[in-house]
Amino acid sequence: MPQTPAESTYPGERLGLPPQGRRSVGRVGRRIAALVIDWVTATILATAFLGYSMYALPSEAGLTQFAPLLVFVIVQVLFIPTIGGSPGHRLVGLRVVNVAGGWIGLWRPIVRSLLLVLVIPAVIWDADQRGLHDKIAGTVALRW
């Protein structure tokens, strides 16, 4: 008897991905580690080049308070289509790919990154452990 989508036994089964190993859905631990690496990197770059200071009062910070966020989005948009993921993704062995196959293009990383910085879409998952930001963009983070 064929399985319905609700009866899938592992994340990625509905997408035709293997249960584990190479090209399986990247699990939560790896994705959180990639996010932390990318955020720390963005904060360091914002501090070095954009005058960001974690210790500035909100009244003193002005627009520089958004500098790490801006750097984070730029890094995501630049690196996902060129090397298959952000530096954090690549360091933890993940790759962001188009679910339909082929080149991911430029619009998918833009949409994915903007939804990621809103946080809520990233914490709403489906049975394949894909966040809403990935579902809307048509992407999936795979172990590589």
UniProtKB/TrEMBL annotation:
<keyword id="KW-0812">Transmembrane</keyword>
<keyword id="KW-1003">Cell membrane</keyword>
<feature type="transmembrane region" description="Helical">
    <location>
        <begin position="66"/>
        <end position="85"/>
    </location>
</feature>
<dbReference type="InterPro" id="IPR010432">
    <property type="entry name" value="RDD"/>
</dbReference>
<dbReference type="Pfam" id="PF06271">
    <property type="entry name" value="RDD"/>
</dbReference>
<dbReference type="InterPro" id="IPR051791">
    <property type="entry name" value="Pra-immunoreactive"/>
</dbReference>
<keyword id="KW-1133">Transmembrane helix</keyword>
<feature type="region of interest" description="Disordered">
    <location>
        <begin position="1"/>
        <end position="24"/>
    </location>
</feature>
<dbReference type="InterPro" id="IPR016795">
    <property type="entry name" value="UCP021697"/>
</dbReference>
<keyword id="KW-0472">Membrane</keyword>
<protein>
    <submittedName>
        <fullName>Putative RDD family membrane protein YckC</fullName>
    </submittedName>
</protein>
<dbReference type="GO" id="GO:0005886">
    <property type="term" value="C:plasma membrane"/>
</dbReference>
<feature type="transmembrane region" description="Helical">
    <location>
        <begin position="106"/>
        <end position="125"/>
    </location>
</feature>
<feature type="domain" description="RDD">
    <location>
        <begin position="27"/>
        <end position="138"/>
    </location>
</feature>
<feature type="transmembrane region" description="Helical">
    <location>
        <begin position="32"/>
        <end position="54"/>
    </location>
</feature>
